[in-house]
Amino acid sequence: TSLNISFNTPTTIFEIGTIINSITFTWSYNKSIIWQKFNNELLEVSLRKYVYNIPFSSKKSFTIIANDGKKEYNRSIEISFLNGIYWGVSSSTVYDNNFIETLTKQLSDNRKRTITVDCNEGQYIYYCLPTRLGTPSFSVGGFSGGFDKVSTILFENNSGFTENYDIWKSTNSNLGKTTILVE
User: Fold this and answer.
1) Pick from 2, 14, 35, 159: CA 20 to 30 A from residue 20's CA?
2) Among candidate residues 13, 10, 12, the one with its CA nearest the CA of residue 109
3) Are 95 and 116 in contact (CB under 8 A)?
């Protein structure tokens, strides 16, 4: 039987701009081991917890190596820092930080997703993303288009990181419940 290493660390994605001062890793094995290392530091065999206390704010990998007496196994976990992709409906035409923060947020470096919103009278559908992720294409029910870029703003996220964001708005309002494929 192979040795399985399972990380139990709850969060691996943080908002870009966040500084992690301390992070605790926990893990488990499916059988006994004779030695283990966390990031090349030899640990007591019975330990299943490691606290990393060196501040960091950019992508970092952590690796466990363990030996079951027959073979060495390893498992890595990566901590990532991403900015948000935002979407939702609004009747506002003031495009600023506050506007973007009223929308649904998902930390991601990929502009592609499928979203569903309920767009009522006087409301438009909005999709806001970092300019560096390129120009999205939109399709609803197999038909392409229906969105225009209405603004590019310098957006500061809640962690103090600033970058340009493009704000895309549906051409039409009052679209009801709508599912949009963004690519």
Assistant:
1) 35
2) 13
3) no
Q: Quote the CA–CA distance of 130 and 1 in Å, as a whole number.
A: 46
Strand partners, 168: 127, 149
Whether 92 contacts 99, CB under 8 Å:
yes
85 closest CA partner among 111, 114, 58: 111
Closest CA relative to residue 125, chosen from 170, 91, 171: 170
Answering whether pTM is above 0.70, one says: yes
For the chain, the residue count is 183
Distance CA 147, CA 127 (A): 9
Which stretches of the chain are assigned E, i.e. beta strand? 5-7, 13-15, 23-29, 35-38, 41-43, 49-52, 60-67, 72-82, 84-90, 104-107, 113-119, 124-130, 138-140, 143-144, 147-156, 162-170, 176-182
